[in-house]
Automatic annotation (TrEMBL):
Lineage: Eukaryota, Fungi, Dikarya, Basidiomycota, Agaricomycotina
Signal sequence annotation: none
Species of provenance: Sparassis crispa
PANTHER family assigned: NGG1P INTERACTING FACTOR NIF3 (PTHR41774:SF1), PTHR41774
InterPro entries xref list: DUF34/NIF3_sf, N-reg_PII/ATP_PRibTrfase_C
Listed SUPFAM superfamilies: NIF3 (NGG1p interacting factor 3)-like
Protein name stated in the entry: ATP phosphoribosyltransferase
Length: 121
């Protein structure tokens, strides 16, 4: 079973709303570790960015460097179906759905995120 870790950065006031939405939309796939649900690791830091010409920033102004208190959020994304032929492509489709949903509910115009393939040992 191919698992993924989704890491994204979110303004502190919006973090719980985004997480709860993903947990509710994908209860069997996002934030599940064994018999535990709603699992995430959240750490706080400062994000920085400068909106460029043509941007429509949720925070800040075009051309001005912004500093925002953000959370780094880490959650597991599990596959949709048991292992079998062509499983890897189905697993990738599931994580793609989760990222698409993240982009819909996240407050930023451009969401900063990473997806990592995980290995079992």
């Amino acid at each position: 079973m191919q698992r993924f870790k989704l890491v994204f950065f979110c303004p502190v006031p919006s973090t719980q709303g985004v997480l709860q939405h993903l947990f509710a939309k994908f209860p069997r796939h996002v934030g599940r570790i064994g018999l535990y649900g709603g699992c995430a690791f959240v750490s706080r830091g400062t994000g920085q960015f400068t909106p460029l010409a043509g941007a429509n920033p949720a925070i800040g102004s075009v051309g001005t460097q912004e500093y925002v208190e953000e959370n780094r959020v880490e959650v597991l994304v599990l596959p949709d179906s048991p292992a079998g032929p062509k499983q890897e492509s189905r697993d990738s489709v599931q994580v793609t759905r989760v990222v698409e949903e993240l982009k819909k509910v996240h407050p930023y115009e451009e969401v900063a995120y990473d997806v990592y393939r995980l290995e079992d040992f």
